[in-house]
Amino acid sequence: MNFAEQLPVLPVITPLILAPVTLLLPQGRAPHLFATFVSWLTFAACAFLLAAVSDVGVISYHLGDWAPPLGIEYRIDLANALVLMLVSGIAAVVFPFAYASVRLEIDERQSTFFYCAMLICMTGLLGVTITGDAFNVFVFLEISSLSTYALIAMGARRDRRALTAAFNYLVMGTIGATFFVIGIGLLYQATGTLNMADLHDKLAGNSSRVVGAGFAFIVVGVGLKLAMFPLHLWLPNAYAHAPSAVSAFIAATATKVAVYVLIRFFYSVFGFDFAFEAAAFTWVLLPLGLAGMFVASFVALFQEDVKRMLAYSSVAQIGYMLLGLSFATVEGLTATLVHVFNHALMKGALFMAVACVVFRAGSHSIDAFAGLSKRMPVTTWAFILSGLSLIGVPLTVGFVSKWYLLEAAFAAGHWYAGFLIVASSLIAVLYIGRIAEVMLLREPHEEGRYAIPAKDAPLSMLIPMWVLVGANIYFGVRTGLTVDIATRAAEALMLTAGGAP
Amino acid sequence: MGWFEFVLDRYNYWIVIVLMMTGLYIVFARGNLVKKIVGLNLFQTSVFIFYITIGKIAGGTAPIYIDGELDHGDDAGHGEGVAAGHETVVGDGSESLHQAPAEDGANALPHAEEHASEALSSKIENTFAANDLKAGLESVEPSADAGSLHTAPDGADKIANDSLLHLEKPAAPGFEVEGGADAANALADVVHHSSEVIYTNPLPHVLILTAIVVGVATTAVGLALAVRIREAYGTIEEDELETMDNVAEFGDTAAAGLAS
Question: Of A324, B201, B242, B251, which is least surrounded by CB within 10 A?
Fold first, then answer.
């Protein structure tokens, strides 16, 4: 039993086993340092894993040495190695960032529970990504969701609406998860297996009504979890009222992981043999993706609360991902995977910038941003740079993913989608520009509720934030890194799905 | 009435659907947060029943390994073991009644038992066969339409006792000469046939056990949130909560406009 053999299980069990240890630590600095250490350990494991997968191809790990399809299998290919890297990377940046923000926003007595819940949430997200077992996905999805409900509710110290937001998310999230379980049950009824690869083999050519119903349940269930356009109602309030550090973490990771689950089921489980797949792409994902892009962007334009504006913008960005997915081409899938990665970078940086503002101004209303460039210039420029990335300006990651998405749209013959992508990006210019105008051109409040001292956020917050902003630019210039991995992952997925390359 | 039977045969699915829709309706229609949680529970319960339905196999027995119990049955001396032996023979007897004349079946019973213990002399094989017979009993039960399930053992108990007496004797070789050959063959068939044990599929039960744990956790978190909401707002009615949030955000006029 050497280290390399057990590597695939480490990203999940490291945080899972060490999370309860957080509860035993004394209040104060210790839980935070410990959680940060764990997140870095996990990140290192994920980085090793990505390197290994990139070298040797698909890694299959049998939990407890029980051979699949009966045993649970962890199956890591490039697609989930990329998402693993993303989740653990964001965690490794958000955990050090959280300390100052959490100390301000959360009761000292709750801080140990807070870091424990954060670690469990990370465990769940990594587990969903790494597993090759359909039921296991449900279990990990609920592990991450349950801790997310608790984390969002911890925002109640500043704003009691966090409680109702968490409750609504709980109801919607549970309905989504239960739909997903019903879908898995129907698939099990039709095939007698839960292993994804095995499901794919046994479902080949089977388009019976049982499988069709299972497919529908799974799409709706995961759609609720990933805030697919008409099912997104839980998201804006949840992101807006959660503690700032939590918003930064879940906005960057939770919905991305759900998008990954959707990709996995569409391409690795059902495949193109499945009769409803093409219909689902054409009549569900494509129109809903387009509608989400526009409706959510428009709503974002009129928000007075910057966090809620960013949340609506997330719904719109998920529209882009669904759009790329629905083209059913290697280019489209590459664009989706790249955008999953890139959007996490920009949304993480944006929510961190808002957290810095909340730290000094105590509010995330747009009024608190007035004249911010004169009070907190470092934070302001972080917000503007990652905002430019969200719009899709060249030399940022946002440009890379929009470019590939456009290319995929024209290659797939959906030229109108290409124009709509550009049009909805223009709305992003408006809503980011509105905040930028307030920050740069307005005079800061000299007195009153939103008067803030001319002092930037502490370094413990600024450094992680600028790491993410730097990543936005680095991956925007060195485009080869992500695009190469995403293309290879997309080709592998397409091969499993049995589609034309 | 074909459709009527179609509906009736799948009664468990109808229960699932009715429960599911009731639960979802409660979640959507009720404004009280605790009632919402109750609806959510009902919805999840329907899924539990659905999974249990998937796992059920007609005539299947509980997936419990009944090794130890049948070990005793071979000794034919210990209380529980004897009981198991009885049941085995009862099941066997009622099965044979369908295939052979009643007298012959009763005569042949001991021999079949001997046959089994003779042929499967090694311990493992022996328990295996006995296990099968036990399973055979389960599968026979529904077919005992001749009488109620309660009366059957009374008559058959005697036969079983007889067979046990025979069992204690050394096995008589060449029983085929002695008994009705037809019945013995039929019984041998039964012994052979029931070597395919039918177990209910345990996996869906395991899965749903996991889902139940998740469901309980969700309910706990949901109720805890409801308690906190009551502490913070003083109510758990959704429309009142919404009004209070609107007042907080837009002032009294907006709430008044909403109410009118």
Answer: B251
Chain A nearest-CA distance from B126, in A, is 29
Global pTM? 0.81
3-state class (DSSP) for residue A195: strand
Instruction: Name the residue with higher pLDDT: A305 or B173.
Output: A305
CA distances from A191 to A128, A152, B98, B141, B199 (A): 22, 38, 36, 30, 18
Average pLDDT over all residues of chain A: 90
Please report the ipTM that was assigned to this predicted complex. 0.90
User: Do B226 and A167 make contact, defined as CB atoms within 8 angstroms?
Assistant: yes
Evaluate if residue B167 carries a pLDDT over 80: no
**In 3D, which of A373, A381, A358, A384 has the Cα closest to residue A450?**
A358
Give the separation between CA A461 and CA A450, rounded to whole angstroms.
21
CATH class of B2-56+202-259: mainly alpha
Question: Does an H or E element contain B19, and which?
Answer: helix B11-29
Look at residue B73 and tell me whether its pLDDT is greater than 50. Answer: no
β-partners of residue B32 are: B237
CB–CB of A153 and B232 under 8 A? no
Interface test with B, best of A133, A151, A181, A217 (most B CBs within 10 A): A181
Which of A120, A157, A163, A210 has the highest number of chain B CBs within 10 A, making it the mutation to test binding with B? A163
Per domain, the residue ranges of chain B are 2-56+202-259, 67-193
pLDDT tier for residue B202 given thresholds of 50, 70 and 90: confident
First to last CA, chain B: 55
Interface of A with B in 174-203 (CB under 8 A): 174-175, 177-178, 181-182, 185, 188-189, 194
The whole-angstrom separation of Cα A228 and Cα A99 is 32
**Cα separation, B58 vs B198, whole angstroms:** 9
Stretch among A264-273, A350-359, A443-452, B39-48 having the lowest mean pLDDT: A443-452
Q: How far is CA A122 from CA A13, A127, A245, A255, in A?
A: 11, 8, 13, 13
Per-residue tokens: A408: 């995929």
* Main-chain dihedrals φ then ψ at residue A414, nearest 5 degrees: -95, 65
Strands (E), A205-252: none
Give the span between the Cα atoms of A275 and A273, in whole angstroms. Answer: 6
CB of A161 within 8 Å of a chain B CB? The answer is yes
Interface check for A213 against chain B (CB to CB < 8 A): the answer is no
Residue A131 backbone dihedrals phi, psi, to 5 degrees:
-75, 150
Assess contact for A222 and A265: CB atoms under 8 A. yes
DSSP 8-state class, residue A193: -
CB contacts, 8 Å: B226 with chain A: 167
DSSP secondary-structure letter at B170? P
- Tell me the per-residue pLDDT of A160-187, one tens digit each, with 9 for 90 and over: 899 999 999 999 999 999 999 999 999 9
- Mean pLDDT lowest for which of A186-200, B116-130, B242-256? B116-130
Inspect the interface and report whether the beta carbons of A150 and B207 lie closer than 8 Å: no
For residue B61, what is the DSSP state?
A: B
Nearest to B210 among A139, A156, A171 (CB): A139
Q: Six-digit token pair at A149?
A: 């409900």
What contacts 24+ positions apart, CB below 8 Å, involve A157-163?
A: A157/A105, A157/A106, A157/A107, A158/A105, A158/A243, A159/A241, A160/B229, A160/B232, A160/B233, A161/A237, A161/A241, A161/B245, A161/B248, A162/A241, A162/A242, A163/B225, A163/B228, A163/B229, A163/B232, A163/B233
Average pLDDT along chain B? 65
pLDDT in tens, A437-468: 999 998 888 777 777 777 888 888 999 999 99
